[in-house]
Specification:
By secondary structure, this protein is mainly α. It has helices at residues 3-45, 53-65, 70-83, 95-121, 127-132, 138-158, 174-180.
């Protein structure tokens, strides 16, 4: 066998192996990128609904899916640090101001993290687009607030911190009901 025959044989054996290895590496990169895009899209989709379970779940995945991106992780850690600050008790006079300042700081850290994510993933979002963008109907927020209030009220009742208000109503007699509806007992309208 000549050198050319050996090279041909080596190419026949090694070529498919190299192709499979390269294909697997490319598939792995694609899957990582898809997971990163999924986290990014979820955070963008829910950016105006910070308490949404999908938003919280995506935030918790940032450390895993972007672990090699130091600038994203740095902004993520700043955001988590802001979220984990101890807030003053509700009876302190500047409680609302401290909470508002903390939320502003969290929004700023979130925007910086998202801007860095967008840059890394090839999107050209500006800070204002991230902060003010998206559509979130007021009715959704109002509905969430009503649900949150109802849940808090039920929790207080269940825990015995609040009584369940009960009202007694007197049943109307047949004649009173008909008179109220504009008809007499015979069914004639007046």
């Amino acid at each position: 066998m000549t050198v050319n025959d050996w090279l041909t044989l080596a190419a026949i054996v090694v070529g498919p192996v190299v192709a499979v290895v390269v294909s697997n590496l490319l598939d792995q990169r694609r899957r990582v990128k898809e997971r990163q895009l999924d986290v990014f899209r979820t955070l963008m989709r829910t950016r105006r609904r910070k308490l949404d379970l999908a938003h919280v779940t995506a935030l918790n995945l940032v450390e895993i899916e972007f672990h090699k991106q130091k600038s994203i992780i740095r902004h993520f850690k700043s955001l988590m640090s802001t979220f984990n600050q101890a807030l003053p008790p509700a009876n302190i006079s500047d409680h609302s101001a401290v909470i508002a300042k903390t939320m502003d700081d969290a929004d700023e850290q979130f925007v910086l993290m998202m801007q860095e994510m967008a840059r890394y993933l090839g999107y050209g979002y500006q800070q204002l687009e991230i902060l003010k963008g998206g559509y979130d109907p007021m009715a959704h927020g109002e509905s969430e607030d009503q649900f949150r209030k109802a849940r808090a009220l039920l929790s207080e009742i269940y825990e015995g911190r609040r009584a369940l208000p009960v009202m007694v109503f007197q049943p109307e007699t047949g004649q009173e009901a008909h008179t109220k509806n504009g008809s007499d007992a015979s069914g004639d309208c007046r």
